[in-house]
Amino acid sequence: EQLRKEDPEMLDILATTPLRLRYQTELSIMEAERPMIEFDHAGEVKAVHISPRLDYVPLADPETLTKFYAARKRALEIARDPAFEIRYTFEPGVLLMMDNYRLLHGRTAFDSQTGHRHLRGCYIDHDGPDSLYRMLMRDGKTISVPREATYV
Q1: Pairing state of beta strands 29-35 and 37-39?
Q2: Is 136 helix (H, G, I), strand (E, B) or coil?
Q3: Model pLDDT for residues 82-123, shown as the tens digit of each residue
């Protein structure tokens, strides 16, 4: 919203320039092509994809690339601006769940001389639950999960 107020043209280029996002390990290759900012049919932000170390900007003419890099730089400045931060200090046992598409997140610096930090991440892709939902809606079915079911 801040970028929409400041410079709608910058927002437009971030919403229309497709980036290839790629992350690869020995066990997986995750790759997608999408703009940095995605909107839904109503013009609301659907997702924000900011990962400069994982994105590949497509070939484009110099004018388009100049505009894109300026817009990306400004979007990153906004993302790092303390005015847009919400900070939490977590106590042991606290669980944070978030929609990774809708919330930019990170961790602040930590001095290991002052204590111990232990974080565990658990991630689920949107595709699996979205597919199951669409299949159930298409078939008019509901599912029940036994109370004794265990998920890992």
Answers
A1: unpaired
A2: helix
A3: 898 888 777 878 877 777 666 666 777 777 888 777 777 777
Q: Rounded to an integer, what distance in angstroms lies between the CA atom of residue 65 and that of residue 57?
A: 9
Long-range contacts of 53-61 (CB under 8 A, 24+ apart): 54/21, 54/22, 54/23, 55/19, 55/20, 55/21, 56/19, 56/20, 56/21, 56/22, 57/17, 57/19, 58/17, 58/18, 58/19, 58/20, 60/17
Look at the pTM and tell me if it is higher than 0.85: no
As a whole number of angstroms, the distance between CA 65 and CA 19 comes to 12
- Cβ-proximal residues to 53 (8 Å cutoff; 6+ apart), any chain: none
